[in-house]
Amino acid sequence: MKPRHDHERADQTRGRILRAAVRQFSQHGLAGARIDAIAHEAGVNKALLYYYFRDKSGLYNAALEDASSYVMASATAALDAGASAGESLLHFTLNHFDRMASQHEFQGLLQHEMVRIQRGESRALPVFARSVFAPLFKRTETIIREGIRAGELCQVDPLQIMYSALGANVFYFLSAPMMRLALPFEPLDARSLKLRRKAAIEFLGKAIFRDRSHGDMLAQRVLADVPEPTFKNFPLGRKCS
């Protein structure tokens, strides 16, 4: 019993370190995050942190992998939730919106990685893009093609459907600072997020389905089946991807 107990305790400690690392790296990036702060938040000493992850880069890569794995599992479950290809795509799009609206740490990590890859500094993101995101997007494309062949979805470029579904979510959050200045509303408060969440799925129900009444019925069913996440105060000024 003792070895099992020790193993469980080690897993819990490693998990606390990773959660603290995700929060610190998402706020400050690889260069700005401090090992002291991560260790303090996780309730461990630096020696134990280095025992599990060897160095700061190893911890950063592990944090990015942990966050990416969660997104992969959540998105895959969403793709499996529908009875048809079209319903699966609506679930997937709603999952993407909810992640962007509520999983701020992952969005921060991804944004820092986008900056690092533009500078030629990132070695982690290409690896995870190939191992995590490429299979996910390939599966989504396959589902869209199935929906087109079945006559459920409109006969258009599958990649354009994916851009329309996910790109609209990305643009909403990316454009929030400008929209806040141009229009009399706060795009990232809880009320606005709830309205946009509903509108995004209802729009797809009418836009990508050959039978709009069928698409609208599926959109309402998906919205009813998936509980709204708890919308926290969004970090103003942060870009999203």
Protein topology:
Layout: H1 2-32, H2 35-42, H3 46-53, H4 56-79, H5 85-102, H6 104-118, H7 124-149, H8 158-174, H9 176-182, H10 190-207, H11 212-225
Helix pairs in contact: 1-2, 1-4, 1-6, 3-4, 4-5, 4-7, 5-7, 5-8, 5-10, 5-11, 7-8, 10-11
Q: Can you tell me about this structure?
A:
The protein has 241 residues and is an all-alpha fold. α10 packs antiparallel against α11. The radius of gyration is 20 Å and the shape is globular. The termini are far apart. The C terminus is likely disordered.
Distance between the termini: 45 Å
Instruction: Name the helicity range.
Output: over 70%
Give the count of helical stretches: 11
Q: Give unreliable regions as ranges.
A: 236-241
What gyration radius follows from the Cα positions, in whole Å?
20 Å
What is the compact description of this entry?
The chain is mostly helical and 241 residues long. It has helices at 2-32, 35-42, 46-53, 56-79, 85-102, 104-118, 124-149, 158-174, 176-182, 190-207, 212-225.
